[in-house]
Amino acid sequence: MPLIERICSIILPVFVIIGMGYGYARWRGEVVRMDMASVNRVSMEALAPLMIFSALSSKSFDLYHNGWLILASVLIALGSGLLAWPVARALGYDKRTFLPPMMYNNGGNMGLPLLLLAFGQDALPAAVALFTASTFVYFSLCVKMIQSGREQRPGSLLRLVSSPIMLAMILGVLCAVFHISLPAPLFSAMKLLGEASIPIMLFSLGVRMMDISFKSWHIGLVGAVVCPVSGLICALVLDQLLPLTAVQRGEMYLFAALPPAVLCFMVAEQYRQEPDKVASIVLMGNLAAIVFVPLGLWLGLPGH
């Protein structure tokens, strides 16, 4: 019973904030969705990069200590893609539509606050390490997959590396490797701004739910199950292979159980890669998180 209560205390605040975003969008209608576009841009281009940089460059972040988690994040992304591939082929789904959401879970909007609630403020560097490693896989391998068969725009690799989130990750890792410390007032300001991105991400996820329909329910239902199940299968295998601490083990399982990322829908819309189907995967996946996130917590929390 105490374990169930702890799981509820972790996941309920996250879904309450998402519900508030959805309720506010229902109340205010189209106006709030237009306003949130600007808020999301600020969050993705300023607040989230500051959060990533401050977490990776903080004195508490040990690149060596988090190395196994970074490897786990990459292998979960790649392994989920391998496990989802035969499902896509068997059901006749376009791999460019189905595989990227299976490989890139909601480690930002949902994963960061969940990991903080589950393991405390000290878990932020590890949570960011998991998120940034999977983000790198998505923006390199998955976006390349989506672009396959299309005319490649010059400078696409440069645009990837120069995106605010990737720059923040690269600079943060460099600061961690070379032990570069920023002046305390500057670092504190960046950290405060960065932490503001977490509730904003959750609220905007709730608002974004207004734009998604159940039109392509079949692929959405399949994706909602395949994404967390494939992730948890990879985590079960890695649990036997990687020398993770008890806390890192819990972080890995929770990360593996997360649903597809909302960003997958935005990228699919940008490249016109069946965005309605990706939207259904994202929507139904985030609804199914009510089942799979507690499962990931149950597998990963001490006492299981």
Automatic annotation (TrEMBL):
The chain crosses the membrane at residues 7-25, 68-92, 112-139, 160-180, 186-207, 219-238, 250-268, 280-301. InterPro entries: Mem_transp_PIN-like, Na+/solute_symporter_sf. It comes from the Bacteria. Pfam families: Mem_trans. Its main location: membrane. The keyword Nucleus does not apply. It is a multi-pass membrane protein. Keywords: Cell membrane, Membrane, Transmembrane, Transmembrane helix, Transport. The keyword Amino-acid biosynthesis does not apply. It is found in: Cell membrane. Belongs to the auxin efflux carrier (TC 2.A.69) family. This is AEC family transporter. It comes from Herbaspirillum chlorophenolicum.
